[in-house]
From TrEMBL:
<dbReference type="InterPro" id="IPR038454">
    <property type="entry name" value="DnaA_N_sf"/>
</dbReference>
<dbReference type="InterPro" id="IPR024754">
    <property type="entry name" value="DNA_PolC-like_N_II"/>
</dbReference>
<feature type="domain" description="DNA polymerase III PolC-like N-terminal">
    <location>
        <begin position="11"/>
        <end position="97"/>
    </location>
</feature>
<dbReference type="Pfam" id="PF11490">
    <property type="entry name" value="DNA_pol3_a_NII"/>
</dbReference>
<protein>
    <recommendedName>
        <fullName>DNA polymerase III PolC-like N-terminal domain-containing protein</fullName>
    </recommendedName>
</protein>
Length: 109
């Protein structure tokens, strides 16, 4: 099975809706997460906190999520849970600040 990141992201809200009925706690974590990459039938999910990564990697949570993904995506989906690269986020902010400063402005969030 081959699915693109774009196609995976299009169906992601449908998956979240299905999961929400069964597991609000997992839904909360996955709403904060990012579907970061797709490699074959493996979805790479980036989360912001180690606690969320640990929770999603628990065997029963992983099985629940993967079993709910299968009918939506038409086949078995494996998950790889990773931490978001906080260093890259900080560097991006510094880059934006520098750019804004060069034009005499500032970044407003």
């Amino acid at each position: 099975m081959q699915i693109s990141l774009e196609d995976a992201r299009k169906k992601w809200p449908e998956f979240i809706q299905v999961l929400e009925k069964d597991s609000p706690a997992l839904t909360f974590i996955l709403k904060l997460a990012e579907l970061h990459e797709v490699n074959g039938n493996t979805f790479v999910i980036a989360v912001g906190h180690q606690f969320h990564r640990d929770k999603l990697n628990e065997k029963h949570c992983m099985q629940k999520i993967e079993s709910m993904l299968a009918p939506i995506y038409g086949g078995n989906i494996n998950l790889n849970i990773v931490l978001k690269d906080k260093k890259a986020i900080v560097e991006k902010k510094q880059e934006l600040d520098s750019l804004a400063s060069a034009f005499g402005g500032e970044v407003v969030a």
